Every structure is written in structure tokens, then in C-alpha cells.
Amino acid sequence: ATPSALLVGTGRGAQLGILIKGPEVLESTRKVDTILLDKTGTVTTGKMTLQGVHTAPGTDTDELLRVAGALEDASEHPIAQAIARGATQRVGDLPIPESFKNIEGRGVQGVVEGHLVIVGRESMLEDWSLTMPVDLARAKAQAESARETAVIVAWDGEVRGVLTVADAIKDTSAEAITQFRALGLTPVLLTGDNRVVAEQVAAQVGIDKVIAEVMPQDKLRVVKDLQKQGKVVAMVGDGVNDAAALAQADLGLAMGTGTDVAIEAADLTLVRGDLRAAADAIRLSRKTLGTIK
Ligand code: ADP
Ligand code: MG
């Protein structure tokens, strides 16, 4: 491939809303056969809203929202922001946590008004050897079958409630998946979110391979494993937790609407956050390289 022909390709990319790090990127784009898609912020909008508020017996709804909202307000995770916003709307100003710690891929932990609080996935309860009250477990299961993500709130050694959040699937995602298949790529949904939610989203956009409940550091391993099996892997993501996998992938694509860390790790940026631009990029590189053999 001559450099000038490749640069024509990258110029056309800019018109399509694709930023390409360097012309050499197009070469790996051509050979891709598998495309891993992060869920939150990539296939879905990532703009979550608080849906359900379920308290354990003896816990006050406003207090649940105050305490959980205060802790989540310190986190930048889209789930955390939805909870903090929803809590503020319902109970007003939130207290400032006395301490705060982010537990990657699981949730947050800290002290709010003297209570030692955790907010996050159910697996966090294992750290304190807590089990879910039956009513809350039921509320959680119900929310998940409705494609909502359930977040557990516990403090001072007791489970206090379940908050559920949901975000919308981008209306361009299903069409993008159809285009990936037409290009001969196998789409795979890769997410830290729970399996039930992940499978619901996958079904709605036409993906039949789902790798769910993946810890951030394991996204990288999934990419490496596929590469060991001889796959040429593209990965599309938006989050800090996607950065290592984006860098490892044969082709890393970041959502322009995502975090700077993801954009820096990727080879290509889909400026408008429209997944169809990933299909455009692959088509463009095949065409560009095809004409200059
Ligand atoms: P994804 O891969 O979908 O972008 P993450 O790896 O960031 O998700 O998080 C995995 C899961 O951990 C989330 O779906 C959520 O259940 C839980 N989680 C992570 N951070 C938080 C938080 N700040 N508050 C509540 N839950 C969280
Ligand atoms: Mg994400």
C-alpha cells in the first residue's frame, strides 16, 4: 500500500466521523473477523436513570437514597451518577462522604454520616458475609428480567435496599450489528454487567454471543484468549475499564463520547458515538487497501 492512498482513506474517514490514529491502522482493520462490543456506553447510551427503590424492612426510603446517593455522588460511573441524580431529585442535597473508595468493576465503599457503606454488585456482600433478604432478592430478580441493573446498598453490616437503574439501547446499535455480520464479523457482547441484563440487551440488538460479569482486568484476557485462538479482534469501548482491552485488540475503537483514557488507548475514534461508524471504518479500509494492492 502506498502512503498517499492510505491517507486518502484516512481523509474519507474524517468525513464519516471516524478519527484514525495513523494510516497503518487500516491494515489491521482489513483482517478483523471478531468484534467485541462493550455494553454500557457503547451498545447502550450509558445515560442511566434511577428506576426502582426497594428498602429492607426497617429502612427508610429517604435515608436509603441519602446514604447511597452521597457515596455514589463521589463516583463517575454512569450507574453512580444516575443514583446520585435520582437521589438528589427526591431528597435534596446529599451529605458529603467522610471517606470514599472505588472498587473497580464492583461498586463503591465509604463512610457516610458515620455509617460504613457499600453500594454495588451483589458480590460485594461476600466481603461482609451478608446475604440478601428474600424480598430484596425478588425485587432484584424482577428488575433484571426487565433489563434493569440492580445495585445493592448495605451499611453497618446489614443489607438496606436495592436500587435499580436502566439505560436505553442506542437506536443505531441493531443496524450496526447487521452491518458487522454482512462484513463477515462475529459480534460478541462483553460487559461487567450481570448475565441476565447482558443477554436481554444482546437479544434486542441481534448478538448471540455474550461474555458477561467480566471484571475490568479480565476484558484484556478475553481479547488475548481470542487472539490465541487465531481470531483477529476488534474491540469497541468507551470506559476506563475498556482501555487495556482496546490497546490489546488488533483494532481498538473508542466511542468519541467516551472517556479520554479509552480514546487514547484506541486506534480509531467513532466521533459521534454511533456504532455504525465502526462498520464504515472496516468497509473503508477494505476498499482503500483493495484498490492499492
Ligand atoms: P461495564 O462493563 O458494563 O461498563 P463496569 O465494569 O464498569 O461495567 O462495572 C461492572 C458492574 O459493577 C456494573 O454493571 C455494576 O453492577 C457494578 N458497579 C461498578 N461500579 C459501580 C458503582 N459506582 N455503583 C454501583 N454499581 C457499580
Ligand atoms: Mg462502558
Automatic annotation (TrEMBL):
Protein origin, superkingdom: Bacteria
Subcellular location: Cell membrane
Family: Belongs to the cation transport ATPase (P-type) (TC 3.A.3) family. Type IB subfamily.
Protein name, as recorded: Cation-transporting P-type ATPase B
Organism field: Paenarthrobacter aurescens (strain TC1)
Entire protein: shown range: 408 to 700 of 770
